[in-house]
Design a protein that fits this description.
- The strands form two sheets. Strands 1-2 form a two-stranded antiparallel ribbon. Strands 3-4 form a two-stranded antiparallel sheet.
- The chain has one domain.
- The chain contains four helices and four strands, in the order ββββαααα.
- By secondary structure, it is of the alpha+beta class.
């Protein structure tokens, strides 16, 4: 896993740099990565798995399986439970808004 070469802001924890496909964090099929830079300083923020068409195909297949397969978890879940999960996602975004904004600021080269 790649490391951050620039000091992280105090509120930013270690970054996940892999692709989330079928419920698992994984390297890209090609094994390639790319550096994400702070454009203001040219410093490397982190190095991230570089997805390609094969990774996209795997992600789409996993998503389709989760929804279309009659045994898939999303398909078996009733709408109320799906709604709860979506609301939980919204809660997590709100709870981590400061960290997300700090990361986005770094990625855009703003102090």
């Amino acid at each position: 896993m790649a490391t951050i070469t620039q000091a992280r802001p105090a509120g930013v924890r270690k970054l996940q740099t892999k692709l989330l496909i079928d419920g698992q964090w994984r390297d890209s099929v090609s094994g390639k990565t790319f550096k994400t830079l702070n454009p203001a300083t040219e410093e490397v923020i982190t190095e991230i798995a570089e997805g390609n068409a094969e990774d996209i195909d795997l992600a789409v297949k996993a998503a389709r399986k989760a929804f279309d397969d009659h045994r898939g978890p999303w398909r078996q879940m009733d709408a109320r439970d799906r709604g709860r999960l979506m609301n939980r996602l919204a809660d997590l975004i709100e709870e981590n808004a400061e960290e997300l904004s700090e990361l986005e600021s770094l990625d855009n080269g703003k102090p």
